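Researcher: Last one for today. Full complex below.
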Amino acid sequence: MQRHFDQEFSGLKDQILKMGDYVQESVDMAMKGLTERNLQHFSRVHELEILVNQSHIEVDEACLKVLARQSPLATSLRLVFSIVKINADLERMGDQAVNIAYNGQHYLAAPPIKPLIDLPKMGEEVKLMVRESLEAFFNADIELAKKVLIYDDVVDELKDKIFKELCQMMKQDPSIVEPALNLILIARNLERLGDHATNIAEEAIFDASGQDVRHGSAKP
Amino acid sequence: MQRHFDQEFSGLKDQILKMGDYVQESVDMAMKGLTERNLQHFSRVHELEILVNQSHIEVDEACLKVLARQSPLATSLRLVFSIVKINADLERMGDQAVNIAYNGQHYLAAPPIKPLIDLPKMGEEVKLMVRESLEAFFNADIELAKKVLIYDDVVDELKDKIFKELCQMMKQDPSIVEPALNLILIARNLERLGDHATNIAEEAIFDASGQDVRHGSAKP
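Model: Here's the assembly. Have a good evening.
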């Protein structure tokens, strides 16, 4: 029974890691579209969204099947339970990448606001968070998961800084209100992406240690 | 076995409905704080967040117990599976109400931007969506669930309208950039709340009919 479970769980793991790759590529393409002012990258984000959504449905069905066929207990049950939640987080991350592409497309319709401030840096941090949160979960690596929680604070700080800078710029030059607002929304999308990776990291800590760090009860 | 499951499921239902009540009150208080310019209402939002977060952990644990003790099959398994997801959506709705209170608090620090445009209307629609999506799920009421999906379109349109109006106002009077941005973020929080209620409505349709309307595949 345990052997069957291990086999099926290994399949779930592969599917989740593949979804994670799609999400990382999606964030990458959305940010590249913005920095290189190239709409084609945004099209790739929409292609990837279809793949993420398909995976989302497949993983959900696969989890239901494992639960129905194997009736896993204790630790194994908790693992499947976590996969269901991680699956939902990854799907929503895909949505946020689409939102970046959407806001990015609007941004590109106007002349650029000189540099993109700290947005590309935020994008890099978030991609790292996606990869490392999944790594932390599957390797039961609590230290790595805690690192992801710290990255999230960095991402939040970058967002606050971007908000302030763009507000200042809008006040000085009201003609840039629309494109500045698009960048503010993109910063918000990236922040939400970071929040979802944080959920995964918290799940990793909970599964590996039994310590519930959700709801900020033990953020390092 | 089925009788035991029914009993435990009935307990889960009560917990979820209670969470739904907390979320509705939370949205209500966040919006009242804004319209009545009263910080005390925001404090209530923070109290409610603690209750929502506690419920979130309790429901998760209760679902794990039901799965471990009863090993439910087919329909029953799918119901527990849905509860896990609805629980996550409600918890995130609670977070969004907190975000409204947070942005609202910043908004109140500046002189008011005349009327609050369509924000209170958006708040009312969203509260209705929370109540009716849960009603639709527990009564397997597909028609009601579809109504919720239509409300979501209304909420999205209101958000777009609010965005446009506020952009216009910022351009005419750059001194209101910060408070206008706070209102834009609140409109975004309400939109996200509506999205979560939509997830619940889609879950209701899927469980009642087997028709997967996630990822916009069959939005009416």
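DSSP finds six helices and no strands in chain A. The mean pLDDT of chain A is 91.
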